[in-house]
C-alpha cells in the first residue's frame, strides 16, 4: 500500500498524493470507517488527491465491499480512480469530482456488478468513465463532459444499466458501447459531441436505447453498427450534422416514436447488412410464392371438387339410365310372354 502523508486542508478534505490498495488488509487500513460488508462497506471519503506519477486511487484484487465517495481528484497523470479485478458487486463510486486527469476519470477493469453514480468527470485526457469487462453494472446520474475521447465508454460490459447521465462536449462520442449488448441505455443527454451522441457497436441482442436526447452532434445523434435485435424508441435526435438516427448492419431491430428533425443528411436511416437484406428477400419470396402456391392449391382443390362432382353426376345419371333401360327391357319381355 502506498499512501502519501496526510495534510489536513479543511474540515472536509484530507490531501493525499495517491492511494494504492492491493489486498483487503490495505483496504481496511486506508478506509475512513466501515467493516467491509455489503451493509457496512469500507468508506474512502473526503480525499483531495493530486497524483503526480500515478492513479489517484488504485484498488486491485480486493474481496471486501467498499465505497469511494466525496473525493476530489485533479490532475493525476493516469486515471483518477482505477478499480481492477475486485470481487463482483463490491465496489461503489459515488459523488466524486474527477477532473483534468491524464487518462480516465473513472476506470474499472474486470470488476462486474459495480455502481458508479453522481460523479462529475470532466476534461480528462482519455475517457470520462471507462468500463472494461465489467458487466451487470449500474452507471447513473454522472456528468461526463469535455473529455478528450468518449464521455462514457463501455467495452465488453454486457447487461449494464446506463441512465440519466449527461455526456456533452466530448471530443468523440458522448456514450460509446462496444460488445456490450443486452444493456439498457435510457434518459441520457448526449449533446454537442465530436462524433456521435450515442454509439452502439457490435452489441448484438436486446439492447434498449430509449428516452435519450442526442442533439447537435458532429456526426449522428444515435448510431448503431452491427447491433441488431435492439430497441430504439422515444429518443430526440435533432440538428445533428449527418443523421439523427442511423442503423447500419443492425437488422431485426425495433425503431419507433423517435423525434428526429433538421439533421444534415437525413433524419432516420436504416441500412441493414447484406445478410439481413438476403434474409428479408428470401422471406418476402417465400411469402409471395406461398400465396401463389396457396392460390394454386385452393384452385386445384376447387377444380378437383368440380370435376369429381361432375363425374359423380354423370355416374349417377348413367346408373339411372341403365336402371331405366333394364326396367324397360324387363317390361318388354313380360309383355311378350303375355302375348304368347
Question: What are the main properties of this structure?
Answer:
340 residues, alpha/beta, Pectate Lyase C-like, twelve-stranded mixed β-sheet, ten-stranded parallel β-sheet, 29 strands, disordered N terminus
Q: Can you describe this structure?
A:
With 340 residues, the chain is of the alpha/beta class. It has two domains: 2-280, Single-stranded right-handed beta-helix, Pectin lyase-like (Pectate Lyase C-like), CATH 2.160.20.10; 281-340. Helices cover 21% and strands 30% of the residues. A twelve-stranded mixed β-sheet has the order 1-4-7-10-13-16-19-21-23-25-27-29, with helices on one face. The chain has a ten-stranded parallel β-sheet with strand order 5-8-11-14-17-20-22-24-26-28, with helices on one face. It is elongated and about 100 Å long. The model is unreliable at 1-11 and 336-340 (pLDDT under 50).
Helical residues, percent? 10-25%
- The CATH topology of the largest domain turns out to be Pectate Lyase C-like
The rounded distance between the terminal residues' Cα atoms is 141 Å
Oligomer: single chain
Amino acid at each position: 500500500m502506498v499512501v502519501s502523508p496526510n495534510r489536513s486542508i479543511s474540515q472536509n478534505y484530507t490531501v493525499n498524493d495517491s492511494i494504492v490498495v492491493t489486498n483487503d488488509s490495505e483496504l481496511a487500513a486506508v478506509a475512513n470507517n466501515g467493516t467491509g460488508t455489503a451493509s457496512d462497506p469500507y468508506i474512502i471519503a473526503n480525499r483531495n488527491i493530486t497524483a503526480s506519477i500515478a492513479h489517484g486511487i488504485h484498488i486491485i484484487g480486493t474481496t471486501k465491499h467498499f465505497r469511494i465517495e466525496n473525493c476530489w481528484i485533479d490532475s493525476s497523470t493516469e486515471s483518477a480512480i482505477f478499480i481492477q479485478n475486485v470481487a463482483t458487486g463490491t465496489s461503489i463510486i459515488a459523488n466524486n469530482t474527477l477532473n483534468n486527469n491524464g487518462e480516465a476519470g473513472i476506470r474499472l477493469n474486470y470488476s462486474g456488478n459495480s455502481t458508479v453514480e453522481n460523479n462529475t468527470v470532466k476534461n480528462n485526457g482519455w475517457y470520462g468513465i471507462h468500463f472494461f469487462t465489467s458487466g451487470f453494472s449500474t452507471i447513473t446520474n454522472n456528468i461526463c463532459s469535455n473529455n478528450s475521447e468518449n464521455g462514457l465508454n463501455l467495452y465488453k460490459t454486457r447487461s449494464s444499466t446506463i441512465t440519466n447521465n449527461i455526456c456533452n462536449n466530448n471530443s468523440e462520442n458522448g456514450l460509446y458501447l462496444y460488445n456490450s449488448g443486452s444493456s439498457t441505455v435510457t434518459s441520457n443527454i448526449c449533446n454537442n459531441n465530436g462524433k456521435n451522441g450515442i454509439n452502439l457497436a457490435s452489441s448484438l441482442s436486446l439492447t434498449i436505447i430509449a428516452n435519450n436526447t442526442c442533439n447537435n452532434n458532429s456526426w449522428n445523434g444515435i448510431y448503431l453498427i452491427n447491433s441488431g435485435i435492439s430497441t430504439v424508441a422515444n429518443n430526440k435526435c435533432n440538428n445533428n450534422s449527418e443523421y439523427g438516427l442511423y442503423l447500419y448492419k443492425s437488422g431485426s431491430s425495433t425503431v419507433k416514436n423517435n423525434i428526429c428533425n433538421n439533421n444534415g443528411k437525413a433524419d432516420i436511416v436504416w441500412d441493414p447488412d447484406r445478410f439481413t437484406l438476403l434474409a428479408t428477400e428470401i422471406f418476402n419470396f417465400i411469402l409471395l410464392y406461398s400465396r401463389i402456391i396457396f392460390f394454386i392449391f385452393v384452385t386445384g382443390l376447387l377444380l378437383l371438387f368440380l370435376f369429381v362432382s361432375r363425374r359423380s353426376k354423370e355416374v349417377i345419371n348413367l346408373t339411372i339410365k341403365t336402371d331405366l333401360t333394364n326396367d324397360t327391357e324387363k317390361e318388354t319381355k313380360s309383355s311378350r310372354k303375355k302375348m304368347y
